[in-house]
Amino acid sequence: MGGCLSRHHTPQPHATEPPRQTEPPSRNGDTVEPKSPEKTTKLKEPHKCEAILNDADITIDRSSIENLHDQLYAGVFLNQKRKKYWVERTSHHNCFMLFARDLVITWADDERFWHWVNFKETSDAFVDVAEMLMVCWLEIHGRFETTNLSPGIVYEVLFVVMLKDPAYGWEVPVNLRLILPDGSSQEHKENLMEKQRGQWIEILAGKFMATPDKVGDIEFSLYEYEAGIWKKGLIVKGVAIRPKA
């Protein structure tokens, strides 16, 4: 009978292999190419990272480059919390904070003039800040080795301070100075009377480009002692050295 199977022929099931997995077609009908591992941005260790972390206060997680970067983004204290080192998340450039204990502050160890306060950092760790009680001779100095900075990057050097309310004796502007490894210097004055009270402010000492051919120490200062005016109400957190925004 047309279209009917013979009773002597029973169809047997055919063993079929599962279809091979293929890449899904793209919207235009072309096959989507698998991503090449070479196209993925790979993290690298920041400039002089290993040497800098020799002074770390905590154990560094080197189980993977990703874990290392996460720790560096958050920041690592160095030299018993005298410094802090971190890496910018987007640029991966080195940044540093020199806390007040790492600076030279005239009369800072005389409790008649300065008082050391344990201050809670943003990372929930505590650092020492220097609170001025009363001085007529304000002089703060620091220095830093430029080889630890990312080469070819313009850096800013900023004093991080707070003026309490009340604070007085700031009618005369303070002096700021930055001396570079080649001996050149930048100097200017800053009027603290115009600054907001009760919050951390940044005062620019100067800026420069970190270059491999001009390495050495930079020196930075904030001072005022010629007017002989008694001053009160300044809190010194430290000096930030970071890429110019």
TrEMBL record:
Regions of compositional bias (Basic and acidic residues) in chain numbering: 30-46
Stretches the record annotates as Disordered: 1-46
Name of the protein described by the UniProt record: Protein PHLOEM PROTEIN 2-LIKE A1-like
Database matches in PANTHER family: LECTIN-LIKE (PTHR48478)
InterPro entries: PP2-like, PP2-like/Lectin
Organism in which the protein naturally occurs: Escallonia herrerae
MF terms in GO: carbohydrate binding
Compositionally biased intervals (Basic residues): 1-11
Pfam (any one): PP2
Protein origin, superkingdom: Eukaryota
